[in-house]
């Protein structure tokens, strides 16, 4: 498929509260380094390349960028790169960040933030991005414990005007119900893709039924997770890709978008060609037959 003229609105738009975004967005986790994210010996990404990818993304119509203060390598920070590349920010740009996890300046992981520490993490993002408020903040958690206190702390920051909208990440349906009883939730960001968490299908649908965006991560990387795409792929995915003159990564993105109008893509890359391909995937329409072939792969 050709990627020349496709822009990030090809798959339509979705409203995160009062903020309208194109369904093809961009994830910033791959920008600070080449290779595996969070590796202690990570090789910093070429600064010019990272900035070029961000600017090209916006040129292609990307107006939803996912980031975090803990996305950094020894010499690069995703938030700093975003600010350098894009400030003063376009009016329609929605930057979504996440809090909860934290890393020491040396890169070591810290304990997840307590409710009291979440404010500092929000402020850290504000300082790094050079903004007075954050568009969307996801509470990123591990485990199944209650999120009421932590989400409540973020709801207070929302009331104070530091945060416009809230989301939650790495969560269960029970967490979503708990959060919604405290404050509106505009998005759920969880790991999901072809063959990744088929048991999550019902939750993905349920988010749509509640008017909440579902934003999958690792939808290309799959089981490669933070190490990235492995290069191995199911023959069925390859075959569908060949039929469209597309790549398996594009088929993976198109498949997630086909799960419902509320599903947003945030593919991560530091490669300018992959960026163009990922945006172009918004125009890739899978037939009913292709979707059923991929459904079988998804369910193993
Ligand atoms: N909430 C959470 O817990 C959480 C966790 C992880 C990630 N995230 C967010 O979700 C975003 C998406 O995850 P991700 O960055 O792992 O993205 P992904 O889209 O699943 O996969 C990225 C991997 O695929 C490669 N890739 C990207 N586009 C490609 C293409 N067109 N063809 C071939 N390979 C391609 C990338 O390498 P190249 O750089 O070589 O393209 C990288 O190895 C992250 O950037 C981050 O913002 C959130």
Please give a structural write-up.
- The protein is an alpha/beta fold.
- The protein has a single domain (20-231, 261-284), classed as TIM Barrel (Alpha-Beta Barrel), CATH 3.20.20.100.
- The protein has helices at residues 47-59, 78-86, 115-129, 148-159, 173-180, 201-209, 235-244, 248-257, 272-280, 288-298; strands at 13-16, 19-22, 26-27, 33-34, 43-44, 64-66, 94-99, 134-140, 163-169, 187-189, 213-214.
- The strands form three sheets. A seven-stranded parallel sheet has the order 3-6-7-8-9-10-11, covered by helices on one side.
- Helix 1 (47-59) packs across helix 2, helix 1 (47-59) packs parallel to helix 9 and helix 7 crosses helix 8 (248-257).
- 46% of the residues are buried.
- Bound molecules: NADP nicotinamide-adenine-dinucleotide phosphate (NAP).
- NADP nicotinamide-adenine-dinucleotide phosphate (NAP) binds at residues 27-30, 66, 98, 140, 169-170, 189, 217-221, 228-229, 247, 249, 266-271, 274, 277-278.
Order of helices and strands: EEEEEHEHEHEHEHEHEHHHH
* Strands, total number: 11
- CATH architecture descriptor name: Alpha-Beta Barrel
Sequence stretches where pLDDT stays below 50 over 5 or more residues = none
- Helix coverage percent of residues? 25-40%
Termini separation: 27 Å
Strand share of the residues? Answer: 5-15%
Mean pLDDT: 96
**Number of discrete helical segments:** 10
Question: Could you provide a short overview of the structure?
Answer:
The protein is of the alpha/beta class. The chain has helices spanning 47-59, 78-86, 115-129, 148-159, 173-180, 201-209, 235-244, 248-257, 272-280, 288-298; strands spanning 13-16, 19-22, 26-27, 33-34, 43-44, 64-66, 94-99, 134-140, 163-169, 187-189, 213-214. It has a single domain, classed as TIM Barrel, CATH 3.20.20.100.
